[in-house]
Specification:
The complex is a heterodimer of chains A (about 140) and B (about 290). Chain A has about 140 residues and is α/β, with parallel strands linked by helices. Chain A has a single domain, classed as Lumazine/riboflavin synthase (Rossmann fold), CATH 3.40.50.960. Helices cover about 40% and strands about 15% of the residues of chain A. Chain A has a four-stranded parallel sheet, with helices on both faces. In chain A, helix 1 packs across helix 4. Chain B has two domains: about 140 residues, no CATH class; about 130 residues, no CATH class. Helix content of chain B is about 30%, strand content about 10%. In chain B, strands 1, 2, 3, 4, 5 and 6 form a six-stranded mixed sheet that branches. In chain B, strand 4, helix 2 and strand 5 form a beta-alpha-beta unit. Chain B starts with a helix and ends in a 27-residue tail after the last helix. Classes of the chains: A alpha/beta (about 140), B alpha/beta (about 290). Chains A and B meet through helix 2 and helix 3 of A and helix 4, helix 6 and helix 8 of B.
């Protein structure tokens, strides 16, 4: 059986989640590997969520937020940008493939972009193979 | 080389003067341990206590650790070396202590030794600075002429490693962890109560000293100290199983410096990088 990655998508309520909705209502096809969790803002994402997701078996984590400057709460995604950048550097230095965490700015009107990003990211994770480093072995 | 005896005398004198005049209610310094190699952190509360104060080349504890234990508003005199003064600045930035409540007794020092190995502590495991950044009273001549090398040089060999090799390295190192939390106890920046690892709702991590719990604890701790770690190296010296935590902290500090152009604990005007942002931050940092 071919490898079907499990990808955790964390999407901000105002942009990316609505963008994903748009992708759905416009009947765009994209791989079903992403499980989307909705948060109110990308700055709601504690980087520990991401570390924990990898531990609990995610092969990749996709974080979606509003474009910088477009945040519903004005500055949330600007904080998130710094936080997630640091988290990424930490995972990288620990030895995890840096491609497993991706942050994208997807607005509510970019259903196309959401589908494209998911498509691209899924292929990328498929190429990287299963994530076994952080995953808790039972 | 630094004259430790002279510093000790001056430290006693200043602590006595400050306690006597009532300018401070407590003076944080070091006292004699069971031998010369193991001095202990010490809080002198009255003039008689001052006699117990010692200072030698093994007094490398970061006394900034103890500032947050006193209620806000307590007047404190504290003996600070280079990295310690940066820790104090960082705590002021985070509004844990107020500048006006502190009297910093700056100690420019060179040739501190690690009691475990007897080696001189240099830029390999710490920030490699000699002179305090912030002080009210300087207890010795500032160290000049000694060019301090970049504290990040030691990282080169680990950055050059293949990512799988680096993973193996960190897994091997972090799996030694016995969850004694000495790193957390020694760290001047670790003051959360409760710490995320002690919480059960939500349960952030496995707590057993096994691979998953170790990874989660340390990775999250590295992130919590991102842009705040002042590179005193206390965590690695406190570690009973000698995990080179300083390497990871250095790496994160280096990345933060490159991404946000700000070094932790250098000015009380700054804001910690992760509770701040700039509109002109580049999206490139996410790649």
């Amino acid at each position: 059986m071919s490898f079907e990655p499990k990808i955790l998508g964390i999407a901000c309520n105002w942009c990316t989640y609505t963008g994903a909705d748009l992708a759905g209502t416009t009947r765009l096809e994209y791989p079903p590997n992403v499980r989307v969790v909705r948060v109110m803002c990308s700055s709601r994402i504690n980087p520990s969520f991401i570390f924990r997701a990898f531990q609990l078996g995610a092969d990749g984590v996709l974080v979606g937020g509003c474009h910088p400057g477009d945040c519903h709460y004005n500055t949330g995604n600007l904080y998130a940008r710094r936080r997630l950048a640091t988290a990424k550097k930490i995972l990288e230095f620990a030895g995890l493939e840096s491609g497993r965490l991706r942050v994208e700015w997807i607005s509510a009107s970019e259903g196309n972009k959401f589908a494209e990003v998911v498509e691209e990211f899924t292929t990328q994770i498929k190429n990287l193979g299963p994530q076994t480093k952080l995953k808790i072995q039972v | 080389m630094t004259d430790f005896k002279k510093i000790e005398e001056k430290l006693k004198k200043e602590a006595k003067r400050l306690l006597e005049s009532g300018a401070v209610t407590v003076a944080l310094a070091y006292e004699k341990g069971y031998d010369e190699k193991h001095p202990m952190p010490y809080a002198a509360k009255n003039i008689a206590d001052v006699e117990n104060i010692v200072f030698n080349e093994y007094c490398n504890y970061n006394m900034a650790r103890y500032l947050v234990r006193y209620p806000q508003g307590t007047k404190i005199a504290i003996a600070v070396k280079a990295a310690d003064s940066r820790a104090v600045i960082q705590l002021i930035q985070e509004e844990k202590v107020k500048r006006e409540n502190l009297i910093l007794l700056g100690i420019p020092v060179q040739g501190m030794k690690n009691p475990k190995t007897g080696e001189v502590i240099d830029n390999k495991t710490t920030c490699g600075m000699y002179n305090p950044v912030l002080f009210d009273i300087l207890l010795a001549e500032e160290v000049h002429g000694e060019k301090s090398a970049s504290p990040y040089d030691v990282l080169a060999q680990y950055e050059a490693m293949d990512k799988d090799a680096r993973w193996e390295f960190w897994k091997k190192e972090l799996d030694k962890c016995i969850h004694c939390y000495a790193c957390r106890k020694a760290c001047p920046m670790c003051y959360c109560d409760p710490c995320f690892i002690d919480q059960s709702k939500p349960k952030w991590s496995e707590k057993a000293p096994q691979s998953p719990g170790n990874m989660m604890y340390h990775l999250t701790r590295f992130h919590h100290l991102a842009g705040r770690c002042i590179d005193c190296g206390e965590c690695s010296r406190a570690c009973p199983v000698d995990i080179p935590l300083y390497l990871f902290h250095k790496k994160v500090a280096k990345e933060c410096e490159e991404m946000f152009n700000q070094k932790a604990g250098m000015s009380i005007e700054d804001k910690p990088v992760l509770i701040d942002f700039r509109v002109e931050d580049s999206d490139k940092i996410l790649e």
